[in-house]
Design goal:
Largest sheet: 7 strands, mixed
Shape: elongated
Distance between the termini: 40 Å
Order of helices and strands: EEEEEEEEEEE
Radius of gyration: 14 Å
Number of strands: 11
Number of helices: 0
Strand content: over 45%
């Protein structure tokens, strides 16, 4: 079973910074990508940033230039450095892993429990 443990959320003033971490544990055979999504009240979950095994990264337009995703493959951990935070960044942030678990032949999506990020104006 694959489990994702997130940390680093909290309350910050506009213009501030936060760093989210997500560590994956379990019988992971292969990781295709790790990334972050967020969901604000009344809105759909949206992609924030993703880092793929191929070494490519993708960001939502709204966070480009402010957020940076990085990954420590040896630790199966992904980070999200969030700078110049805005009130509209307020949401629950979810870690996502797409990969193959031991005993399976196809990749699946795994999700963390979510961590709250609140940016005050």
């Amino acid at each position: 079973q694959v489990q994702l443990a997130e940390s680093g959320g909290g309350l910050v003033q506009a213009g501030g910074s936060l760093r989210l971490s997500c560590a994956a544990a379990g019988s992971i055979v292969n990781i295709n990508a790790m990334g972050w999504y967020r969901q604000a009240p009344g809105k759909q979950r949206e992609l924030v940033a993703i880092d793929t095994r191929a070494g490519t990264t993708k960001y939502a337009d709204s966070v480009k230039g402010r957020f940076a995703i990085s990954r420590d493959s040896a630790k199966n951990t992904v980070y999200l450095q969030m700078n110049s935070l805005k009130p509209e960044d307020t949401a629950v942030y979810y870690c996502n892993l797409n990969g193959v678990e031991l005993g399976y032949n196809w990749p699946q999506d795994y999700w963390g429990q979510g961590t709250q990020v609140t940016v005050s104006s």
